[in-house]
Amino acid sequence: MNQPLRHLLQIEGLQPPQIAAMLDLAESYVLLNRSGKTQRDLLRGRTMISLFFEDSTRTRTSFELAGKRLGADVINMSVSTSSVNKGETLLDTAATLNAMNCDLLVVRHDQSGAPALLAQKVDAAVINAGDGTHEHPTQGLLDALTIRRRRGRLEGLVVAICGDVLHSRVARSNIHLLTAMGSRVRVIAPPTLIPPEVERLGVEVFHDMKAGLQGADIVMALRLQKERMARGLVPSAREFFRFYGLDAAKLAWAKPDALVMHPGPMNRGVEIDSAVADDPVRSLIREQVEMGVAVRMAVLDLLARRTHRND
């Protein structure tokens, strides 16, 4: 990459060569991890702090594992027991973290834009691990890597993203990344779960699963985010599954070899049927988790190159 990234706050605005370079580097880490040679000294002497204002299992754990596999000193700050829970502002937290001279700061926050604000106030490289309904850039990268490894390309593929698009930062990162890399992206959801003017992002909008899944190479189901949802957007979980839940009957409307993805955690029987989620041939869900570690290793590697401290 000609201009190394200072932070990774969003996919929007990244150029295809930058995205391809990150995916290529992540590919090398997949091979390294599978070889069993996981411990490296690349980040020895560097400190990575994870600051999660929202609960997380996959993202937090995979960032921790990625940092440790690269040799970093990894610190997980528990927001529930920190000064943040006692009323400390985000800017006060930024000042505290900056005084600690950490190199990499991984942030998840329930407010869109919080990681970007921190990036303006700290010297560390900031990685957005999901902010509000804005973006989740490393999830978009790991999804793209998963698709590229199985299909050999991103360009020209038809990717259908189904479910709660309105509240999904994963959907936004995937839309930005996949359209930039030449995929055709469709979103399928009831009108109440489609963001306003989403067509401006270059996607096709469908409200009917049969129409939206025709000719799809990849079908990505999204979690129904009840914690962010106003009442009345969805009649009931049962009704949602009937019309938009991904089961074998609906998947049959896509291409015969269409592959299934889900960013997790899954609401089985709501947005996806267990038989589809666990299909050993067509489901990529477990592979997505594996790719998450490799992608986060690649991101930490690239950003650490820009934050080298003169000892």
Protein model, in words:
With 311 residues, this protein is α/β, with parallel strands linked by helices. It is 39% helix and 14% strand. It has helices spanning 16-35, 58-69, 90-99, 114-121, 137-151, 169-180, 209-213, 237-244, 248-251, 274-277, 285-306; strands spanning 47-52, 73-78, 104-109, 125-131, 158-162, 184-188, 204-206, 218-221, 259-261. The strands form 2 sheets. It has a 5-stranded parallel β-sheet with strand order 7-6-5-8-9. Strands 2-1-3-4 form a 4-stranded parallel β-sheet, with helices on both faces. Strand 3, helix 4 (114-121) and strand 4 (125-131) form a beta-alpha-beta unit.
Number of helices: 11
Low-confidence stretches: none
Q: What is the rounded Rg?
A: 19 Å
**Order of strands across the main sheet:** 7-6-5-8-9
Mean pLDDT: 92
Q: In terms of structural class, how would the helical and strand content be classed?
A: alpha/beta
Q: Tell me roughly what share of residues is in helical segments.
A: 25-40%
Number of DSSP-assigned strands: 9
Cα(first) to Cα(last) distance is: 26 Å
Mass-distribution shape: globular
From N to C, what is the helix and strand string?
HEHEHEHEHEHEEHEHHEHH
Beta-strand residue percentage: 5-15%
Largest sheet data = 5 strands, parallel
Describe the structure using short key phrases.
alpha/beta, 5-stranded parallel β-sheet, globular, 9 strands, 11 helices, 4-stranded parallel β-sheet, 311 residues
